[in-house]
């Protein structure tokens, strides 16, 4: 199976809302898995993430408030339902998420669910040794958040396969 090519979204830092975002692009992989059963799709995402060195951490929905993680990159794979999400913080960019999609969020990128199916659910994963802190934008703390984001190590492999350094390098 060949590695799909992602859409790339560039989200600038937002000083007004205190969201650091990242100089690295968000990677949006569409229809990575074409499995009709949601539980089988979730299991397959977990296996894929493990195989590429991103241990799965949870199955849950996307929080309905803008937040970011300055201490970890994050992979989100949609295995059930769909959602309208916002990336980049309160002034960010909206996109639709569908079963089979994967988002790879660089540390610092704001994200929130604006509207979702009642059964919307994802698998979340992080590179080894990276622990996410849930943070909300604070303009007074933006410089410190940007410094933490810049210090997060870049994993070699994408959670869906192939070189992440090639996508982010």
Would you kindly provide a brief summary of this structure?
This protein is of the alpha+beta class. It has helices at residues 38-51, 142-151, 164-168; strands at residues 7-11, 22-29, 56-60, 74-80, 83-87, 93-97, 102-105, 111-116, 121-125.
Helix content percent band: 10-25%
CATH topology: Jelly Rolls
What structural class do the secondary elements suggest? alpha+beta
Spell out the CATH superfamily.
Jelly Rolls
Residue runs with pLDDT of under 50 for 5 or more positions: none
Give the rounded overall mean pLDDT.
95
How do the SSEs run, as a string of H and E?
Answer: EEHEEEEEEEHH
CATH architecture: Sandwich
Shape category: globular
Characterize the structure shown.
The chain has 169 residues and is α+β, with helices and mostly antiparallel strands. It has a single domain, classed as Jelly Rolls, CATH 2.60.120. 17% of the residues lie in helices and 30% in strands. The chain contains 3 helices and 9 strands; from the N terminus they run ββαβββββββαα. The strands form 2 sheets. It has a 6-stranded antiparallel β-sheet. Strand 5 and strand 6 form a beta hairpin. It is globular, with a radius of gyration of 15 Å. The model has no long low-confidence stretch (mean pLDDT 95).
